[in-house]
Amino acid sequence: MAWLKPKSVDEALKWMEEYRPKIVCGGTDLFVDWHSRKGLVNAEHWLDIQEISELKQIQMTEEGLSLGAAVTASQIWQDDKLDAFPSLRQAARIVGGWQVQNRASIGGNVANASPAADMVVPLAAARAVIRLSGVNGSRSLPISDFILGPRQTALAPDEMITSVLVPKECLHVPQIFMRHDQRGATDISIVSVAVIAKSSGDQLEWARAAVGAANAVPVILPEEQEALWQGVMDEDKLTRMSELYAASSNPISDVRASAEYRRAMVKVFTARAARQVLGLN
Amino acid sequence: MHEHQLNLTINGCENKVSGDVTQPLADVIREKLGLTGTKIGCRTGECGACTVLIDGKPVVSCLVPAASAEGHDVVTIEELSQKDDFQRLVQSMLETGGVQCGFCTPGIMVTLWAWLQDRSLFGGDISSALKNNLCRCTGYQSIIAAVEQVIAEEGGTRI
Question: Which of A98, A102, A112 to mutate to test the interface with B (most CBs of B within 10 A)?
Fold first, then answer.
């Protein structure tokens, strides 16, 4: 068993071909309760991407805000560039606690594809693009084509996430991330929501929202429904929009909440988040 | 078993440790190095009893595979306890009653000390910094009072 620490993406890809390792960054999902779970994890070799400096950069580019796969949650909430995309900063501040945030990476949160992931929700609302590099080249996928189900992604065995791009139209516009949980502590969300909106005067030009923990993958509305986020938003319209998100959800019942409660909370939290973003309180 | 030789810098000392590359750093610290100040509570990254510093930042060492800590600077409570400012925090915790059963205390002390090095973090809110440290006895008020007392003694403003 080898623990590989590549210094560049090129070196990582070379070793991926050679060793077929399991990729790890902070390890805050993979190594939970390790003594009980290690027998279930099928990994001969490990590729630790934490020390690849090109994956640790947060950059403002022509296309938008680019976050390297190994950027940590605490890097995200501490970096001034996140002034442009505060919903992700809010999500990064709520993941676990300080100690987890110092290790957990954005690439890992996306790759882990937990329905209850926090940082994934603002990324889904923004229609972020996941950039992948593989032995045979690079490609980009919208996050909705990347996360396919609980712990299922479109990542090929010889591919790694290199960065996440938040498109520029979602930067510097009003937005919010909200999470409903039991204790406001290191627990896991019952329902979470991100809303990003662009208005001029009292007219809403557009809004994008995503709901987490209420479906196998983050809930976003089909284009024709999402286009209804427009014009003067009053309480009636907000109610109708939040009902669309609730209707598109397909939550599970588990130890944290029942499916029925989760669906009800999708409606409540979507409307609450939208009211805040639109200044309707 | 996959026996490997790992080189870990813990409290400024180079240690050669054998074992699985994925063994939790918390186990290495406690069982191989005998540094039992670091406690193990949940092994799921929730309780914070195993908090240590890696490159100055608090992390839960139960979730850190030992091999990933190679080449980094790991500091445990045994090293921190040698520092004067840490001892001031100890005194303050004793005075405010910040310790009851004591099991969470080492992890909490590591987190508090790290936050005191950069108090602007979490908008100056120590209770946010403690989110990853579970204490079932104190209700946190006496712990926060201890930190406030340290800050007040230094002539700073109370939070």
Answer: A98
* Neighboring chain A residues of B48 at a CB cutoff of 8 Å: 97, 99
Q: Which H or E run contains A211? A: strand A203-212
Contact between residue B94 and residue B64 where contact means Cβ atoms under 8 Å apart: no
Domain boundaries, chain B: 4-79, 80-153
Which domains does chain A possess? Answer: 3-169 (3.30.465.10), 173-278 (3.30.390.50)
Q: How far is residue B32 from each of residues A1, A33, B25, measured CA to CA in Å?
A: 20, 19, 10
Instruction: Domain B4-79: give its CATH superfamily.
Output: Beta-grasp domain (3.10.20.30)
The tokens describing A21, both together, are 């390792």
Q: Which two tokens stand for residue A80?
A: 């001034």
CATH classification of B80-153, choosing from 3.40.50.2300, 1.10.3720.10, 1.10.150.120, 3.40.50.1820? 1.10.150.120
Provide the residue-wise pLDDT of chain A in tens; the chain has 281 residues: 899 999 999 999 999 999 999 999 999 999 999 999 999 888 999 999 999 999 999 999 999 999 999 999 999 999 999 999 999 999 999 999 999 999 999 999 999 999 999 999 999 999 999 999 999 999 999 999 999 999 999 999 999 999 999 999 999 999 999 999 887 777 788 999 999 999 998 899 999 999 999 999 999 999 999 999 999 999 999 999 999 999 999 999 999 899 999 999 999 999 999 999 999 87
B72: alpha, beta or left? (left if phi > 0; alpha if psi -120 to 50): beta
Best B46, B64, B140 residue to mutate vs chain A (most A CBs within 10 Å): B46
Partner residues linked to B119 by β-bridges: none
Q: Is A188 left (phi over 0), alpha (psi -120 to 50) or beta?
A: beta
Question: CA–CA distance from B115 to each of B86, B111, B128 (Å)?
Answer: 12, 6, 10
Cα dihedral A237, A238, A239, A245, rounded to 10, equals: 110
